[in-house]
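Quick start: load a record and inspect it. Here is Methyltransferase type 11:
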Amino acid sequence: MAEAYVDVKYLQETAAALKQFKTRTYELMRIQPGHVVLDMGCGPGVDTVPMAEYVGTTGRVLGVDSDQEMIKNADEYARKMQVSERVEHRLADVAALPFESGAFDACRAERLFQVLPASACQPVFAEMLRVTKSGGWIVVADTDWATASIDFPDAALERKLIRFFGEHVRPNGYAGRQFLHIMTQRGLQDVEFQVFPNVQRQFTQSPFDEWLLREALTAQAISHTDADFWKTTLTEREAAGEFYATVNMVIVGGRQA
Ligand SMILES: C[S@@+](CC[C@H](N)C(=O)[O-])C[C@H]1O[C@@H](n2cnc3c(N)ncnc32)[C@H](O)[C@@H]1O
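Running the structure step on this input writes:
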């Protein structure tokens, strides 16, 4: 089984690079002072803490995650940023949220659906709808790993590895492109989307170095010769300032009927 989750450090580092993308998700939630909002699969609090500013001193931000380490880091971050009184993190499964129906003015999930099995997508989205009040905004932001592209001399090997990443390393690697359809089918109103290219220039800090190679070799999807060629070539590209990788991040928002 491929390693599905990323660690705290990776999420903290990517948060800085994805600031503009993340800010757009908060804007699309139409958060107002006094609102109570939810972040599903909140990780180390890199979104719950910034949203404290949007809800103001009279609102509240809730974050849920099933990983105790994420919750611990999220709580520490909220304390450090002095927003603990209005930002709370809870250990919970997004498939069975511990909240009443219509409890939230707006709800978001970023890069959550790509780590859930595809079969969990509809039930978890149904939970998202259940806890959001009528007229509230629902925002899903996820990666479309099908759009990943790396400048590499052997395009067949590059395509093979990218496809392997989207279909085997990520439990639901194409989640990002699915939510325009899912939200429309579920009857959300005013559905809108925005696409952000996430460009990476550091091979060694990208998911396409150790992580991808470890999984591909374990699954015997590529040979050791191919893995060495990939690693050597892209390490040299990074050293020369020539590493280029990009993948689309998709934000879809809609209003609960
Ligand atoms: C790729 S991380 C994204 C974290 C955060 N949303 C961000 O953008 O930085 C996915 C998160 O979803 C959490 N997660 C995975 N399955 C979950 C579940 N069933 N219930 C709650 N959280 C879950 C993981 O623990 C992890 O923190």
